[in-house]
Amino acid sequence: MKITDVIAHPLRAVPAKMQRTGTRDFPAFELVIVEIHTDSGVQGWGECLGRVGAIAYAGVVERVLKPLLIGQNPLDIARHWDRMRRALSGRSGGMLLEAIAGCDIALWDIAGKIAGLPIHRLLGSMGRTHLDCYASSINWASDEEAAEETRAALALGFRQIKVKIGKPVARAIERCRQIRDIAGPDIRLMVDSNWAYDVDETVQVARGLERLDYFWFEEPIPCEDIEGYRLLARKLDIRIAAGESDFTAWQVNPDGSIVQVTPTWSITGPATVAPSGASGSVTGTATSATIRDSRPARTVTRAPGSPR
Ligand SMILES: [Mg+2]
User: Fold this and answer.
1) Backbone torsion region of residue 304, taken as left when φ is above 0, otherwise alpha when ψ lies between -120 and 50, otherwise beta
2) How far is the CA of 285 from the centre of ligand 1 (A)?
3) Who surrounds ion ligand 1 at CB < 5 A?
4) CATH number of the domain that 168 lies in?
5) Closest C-alpha among 234, 164, 244, 144 to residue 205
6) Close Cβ partners of 262 (under 8 Å, ≥ 6 residues apart)
7) Is residue 78 in some structural domain?
8) What pTM was estimated for this model as a whole?
9) Is the same domain home to 27 and 135?
10) How far is the CA of 175 from the centre of ligand 1 (A)?
């Protein structure tokens, strides 16, 4: 038996009397009904709360989750939950917060234009006149492609390069050795595994990175595993970088475990994290006009929307 279709129905009903809670008013009730079809003729129905913005949740169901389900056996339910959860890893704070971030950035842009100042001045400037940039990122592709991308970054003058790694662990360590051999000892190298590992695998990779003098290890484990990050920060010598999958200041670095905080403005909005949320050094991804007067063209090689 296979899943043949997934349809999301965003619903909105306006009650005669508005619901009023202690924190907000709800002029309408919203939810999403999910309809799943199979080639056996059996249909399943489900419900997402979708309390506000049901149409957005329906978009996630149909554009993000549906492709994971089509053609699959509907009875592998636990496997599907895991795959769907993984597809949304890094989104734990909610996609609606990302929608707010886009509005937040645009509003700061307006404020900066009205004031005639770059936004970093409005946010309480650190007085920096330049930023160190790194090439991001060498893809987790073939050895030949990785070598070619590394040489291209070096030819552009980058002195810092970030490398994407994944599984298997042994291949990841070998990839890091390959890049170090190409870059030489004077180039600062970092890795980003985008939550590929568990804690034990992270320790294995990190030991290799420490021997190869890598500077930081970004998002080794799922961003939701705060206890895992605490454990890694205590156990490892290499810096652990994280935070770009967090959505609000209070999510970032609650106890100082994370040394390198990497917020992504298009998730958080510029003001949400930068002034108050992080201790230690902060790096960000310049995807907008938010830090426009500190955005040299070479700062970030990735295009907005590409893997972070
Ligand atoms: Mg990253």
Assistant:
1) beta
2) 9
3) 192, 218, 308
4) 3.20.20.120
5) 164
6) 218, 241, 242, 243, 244, 282, 283, 284, 285
7) yes
8) 0.68
9) no
10) 17
Q: How far is the CA of 137 from the centre of ligand 1 (A)?
A: 9
Asked whether residue 183 falls in the same domain as residue 276, the answer is: yes
**How many angstroms does the Cα of residue 243 sit away from the middle of ligand 1?**
9
Ligand 1 center to 45 CA (angstroms): 36
- Bridge partners of 28, per DSSP, are none
| CB-based contact 276:256 (threshold 8 Å) | no
Which pairing describes strands 43-48 and 29-38: parallel, antiparallel, or unpaired? Answer: antiparallel
What is the whole-number distance in angstroms between the Cα of residue 193 and the centre of ligand 1? 7
Same domain membership, residue 111 and residue 45: yes
Distance 280 CA to ligand 1 centre (A): 18
Q: How far is the CA of 163 from the centre of ligand 1 (A)?
A: 10
Q: What one-character DSSP code corresponds to residue 64? A: I
DSSP code at position 195: T
**Gap from CA of 308 to ligand 1 centroid (Å):** 4
In this structure, the answer to whether residues 154 and 295 fall within a common structural domain is yes
Tally of domains in the chain:
2
* Full domain range(s) for residue 208: 123-302
Please check whether residues 72 and 154 belong to one and the same domain: no
Q: What is the pLDDT along the chain (308 residues), one digit of tens a residue?
A: 999 999 999 999 998 988 877 777 889 999 999 999 999 999 989 988 888 889 998 999 999 899 999 999 999 998 898 888 888 776 666 676 777 777 778 788 888 999 999 988 998 888 888 888 999 989 999 999 999 999 999 999 999 999 999 999 999 999 999 999 999 999 999 999 988 999 999 999 999 999 999 999 999 998 888 899 999 999 999 999 988 777 665 555 556 566 566 666 666 555 544 433 333 344 444 332 222 223 222 223 333 344 44
How far, in Å, is the centroid of ligand 1 from the Cα of 244?
Answer: 7
